[in-house]
Amino acid sequence: MLYRFDDFEVDTEKYELRRNGTVRPVEPLVFDLIAFLSRNAGRVLSRDEVIDGVWKGRIVSDATVASCVKSARKALDDSGDDQRYIRTVRARGFQFVAPVSSHGRGEAMSGAPLPQAPAAGPADAGDREAPARETVNGAPSPAAGHGRKPRLAVLPFENLSAEGDEYFADGLTEDIITNLARFRDLLVIARSTTFQLKDRRVIPIELATELGVDFLVQGSVRRAAGRVRISVQLIDAASGLHLWAERYDRDLGDIFELQDDLTRTIASKLGVTLQDVALQRAMTKNPAELDAYECMLRARRYTAMLTPELHAEARDLLEKAVALDPTSADAHALLANVYLAEYRFDSNPRADSIGRALAMAQKAVQLDPQNAYAHCWLAIVHFFRRENDKFRAEAKIALDLNPNDPEILADIGHFYAFMGDFQRGHDLSRQAQQLNPLHPGWYHFSFARYHYDRGDYAETIADMERAGYPEFHWIHMLKAAAYGQMGLTKEAAASLARAYDIKPDFSARGDLNKWNAAPADFEHLMEGLRKAGLDE
């Protein structure tokens, strides 16, 4: 979409602010604010509406909003004194006062604001999927170009118990919206929109048109005799088909603790399910037809399988994704993951893999400072650079931004365990496992490292058996060390030989140093490997 006023153009497709055809440098949030205000020209927008539209419902201070408004005025050669474009309306909010014309797909439109349902939370904070969109009855339809992340509306949960329990159903709905909004792959419609639908009979296909959503979440709550039953279902909005449903029965206990636990569990399950649905749809397309988002979905298969063949495909797909959408923080973060695999797994290596991974991770964070996955992979790059303090700092940011994404929990737990903080790694990986029971096998590495440190060598071997990956030499290296510590020399020698079969140039010292092993852990593992027959 292109918005014009005086000498300015706000181009949401190219993500550019131009004056007389010359691009003006502007920070992403400032651009978002200018685009949001110009899209709603003439309306007095409350502070909450601005936060919903620009910060996507995240908690921000008045000072942050004021600073962003000041920067937007500066970008437009406006000021707080002149207020030629952005007017502060005391005790009410802000108003874009210049006449604005808008144009989409080459067709002139009226200067009236484009109705859109605001999205909630940080899920789409880094999403620059704002190319001009056709609308149907005022709601946006799927965009071309960069690709569109799934849009989701969580409808107010129906209260099936006593009238006084309405607050519990409403609170549950609000918390699920908040937790879902933390997932980078989802655009979640804000509660201020969906709660207007309360007590209204919903026909999915009509709501899909009205809100421009792909999926709906419906649910109900019933409390009786000290227990609560919550039913949740995920619906394909276009077809009305039910994609997933679950029922949760719990003792009431501490009502607030129960609500926190349920919303986190439900949001995590929905987040993982929606990612799977989107991947299945992307897999039906010819690779030449994929947009940037679909490239990312298909590339993400590598993170579960970790094979050299999928690595090569993922790298090609992600390099295509960042070319198609250079503003995608997600694509840059996932490419950092894939570039780093050249170093940590020796997968299809090219020159300066860590340097390229660092550049991609830093770019991802720069594009979207609120993207948890970007901070997660910047943390992991720091891990392999042996910058442990920086790893911890970025890991904390990632977990604070989204404590509900099992992939982030498992990734960070994995590297805490390899760094020697075995309890922390174990606990984070256990949380991830609970949130994603059908998880990839590599989740078990944190448990294996934890058990080996505690001298529970039999459980270490069991963990590696559970992990799978029979062609990954680390599996057999850890089993060899555990067998060696148990005095099972025959099994230890066989595991060590298998590691060398898979990787003839394998060096235990080299791998442990590469993977940033703590000194005591290094010696403990080398001791087990020497007992297994290692001579290096």
Mind explaining what this structure looks like?
The protein has 536 residues and is an alpha+beta fold. The chain is globular, with a radius of gyration of 26 Å. The strands form four sheets. Strands 10, 13, 14, 15, 16, 17 and 18 form a seven-stranded mixed β-sheet that branches. α4 packs across α7 (255-282) and α18 (457-467) runs antiparallel to α19 (473-486). It has helices spanning 28-39, 47-55, 62-75, 166-180, 191-194, 204-211, 255-282, 292-299, 302-305, 308-324, 329-344, 353-367, 372-384, 388-401, 406-419, 422-435, 444-453, 457-467, 473-486, 489-502, 508-514, 519-531, and strands at residues 2-5, 8-11, 16-19, 22-24, 44-45, 86-89, 93-96, 101-104, 107-108, 119-120, 135-136, 139-140, 151-154, 158-159, 187-189, 215-224, 227-236, 242-251. The relative contact order is 0.06.
